Structure formats: C-alpha cells, structure tokens
Amino acid sequence: MHARVSATQQEARVNALQQEADRLQQELGIGEDAAKIVDNHIKLLHRYNEIKDATQMLIGRLANIKEMTVREIHREMDLPETD
C-alpha cells in the first residue's frame, strides 16, 4: 500500500528535482552533449584497459625473466598489487 502524497509535497519534490537537474546541467556545461561525453569516456576507458593489459603482460614477462612472481615485481617497482 502506498502512502498518499499531497499536491504540495509533489510540487516541492518536482521543484527539488528540477533544481538538481539544472545544477547538473551547469556542471556538465550548457550545450554539452551528454552522449558525446559518455562516448569519449568509454573510449578513454577502453584505451586505459588496453594499456593496462599490455603493461601486465610486460610485468609478467619481467617476472619470468627475473624468476620472481608478479606480486614481487609489483612490490619491487612500488606498484599497487590490486586495481
């Protein structure tokens, strides 16, 4: 069972949501296309993941050459052991 909400409460909620939407639009930038921003972010994440994967392969090879574990290489190079 849902509690009834008065028209005044609904209007206050709508106004609060509109203010939040306006604030977020200002933060995003007037006239900025959110879809373009998201697409660019996805491209950057994809590039980051490719670079990270290549780096981990190199660290793995280095560990093999030095007869160490990947964790030991991370510690030796002062790299984080987790993401």
TrEMBL record:
Coiled coil: 7-34
Protein name: DNA repair protein SWI5 homolog
UniProt keywords, alphabetically: Coiled coil, DNA damage, DNA repair
InterPro entries for the chain: DNA-repair_Swi5
One GO CC term on file: Swi5-Swi2 complex
Family according to the record: Belongs to the SWI5/SAE3 family.
Biological processes annotated in GO: meiotic DNA recombinase assembly involved in reciprocal meiotic recombination; meiotic joint molecule formation
Superkingdom classification of source: Eukaryota
